[in-house]
Amino acid sequence: MRRVVVAGSSGYVGRYVVRELKHRGYFVRALTRDAQRLAEPGPFAAPAVREQCDEVFVGEATRPETLHGLFDGIDVAFSSLGISRQRDGLSFEQVDFAANRNVFEAARAAGARKLVYVSLWDPDALAHLAIVRAHEQVVALLRASGVAHCIVRPSGYFSDMGVLVDMAKRGRAFIVGSGTNRMNPIHGADVARVCVDAIESPAAELGAGGPDVLTQQQAAELAFEVLGKPPKLLHLPVPLLRGVARVIGLLNRQFGDLAEFLVTAGEVDGVAPRAGTMTLRDYFAELARRG
Predict the structure, then answer these.
(1) With 90 as the cut, is the pLDDT of residue 262 above it?
(2) CA 187 to CA 283: how far, in whole Å?
(3) Handedness of CA 117, 206, 130, 259 (dihedral sign)
(4) At residue 88, what are phi and psi to the nearest 5 degrees?
(5) Is 203 inside any structural domain?
């Protein structure tokens, strides 16, 4: 199984997956809405990957009619598709579920032999959230597909932690609630290694966490330390943040759901099995060097 389609190839995880696949000798066909984006670096130090793509297929996963031929001659379908910072007005149901459903149904119809999907760690703790329901609908679809599959479950991404460096540069970091929730987020390159391992593994699920377990407050203090600044933290009450999220949801459902996810994730622990090697300190130092 050496020929892979990467859906979500211009996203934080997808870029590193493309790079890791090529490093291991796979044929990579990248699905993207805009080929030019692959030639440019992504946010939070994610690499440009156009040169690592054997083929680029331009299509929109939310429109299945644009995916004809995507999986011709392909063995493995990989997807890390999902809403992150898009401003196109689409919902989690439309992207995180329906777009992934379109990709995997097209893959199955074309005879792909393995399906690999990136969901979330410990979905039961966040099951009431729209983004989690959408992801787990995809998981249920793969489990019922009759095709070999693997679900990769990261505990959280370094790209999400980069906002702490941004806030520290401005002089103050905001903390959700007490800041005592524990987490071990993971670098995109480390997640990518787990994702490619998933192609070659018989496991149905693989957890993926970083090497260091920190509280939310410790992560914020680390950002200030790396920048050589004294920490200035402001703890925001959870009820206040939930109220803000509801107001945002009245104006924009997508952003409101995302805000609710961020608030809830800031309350619960998220510690997955250690699979990464890059530390959060090293990542923050890289962001500081890049400015």
Answers:
(1) no
(2) 8
(3) negative
(4) -95, 0
(5) yes
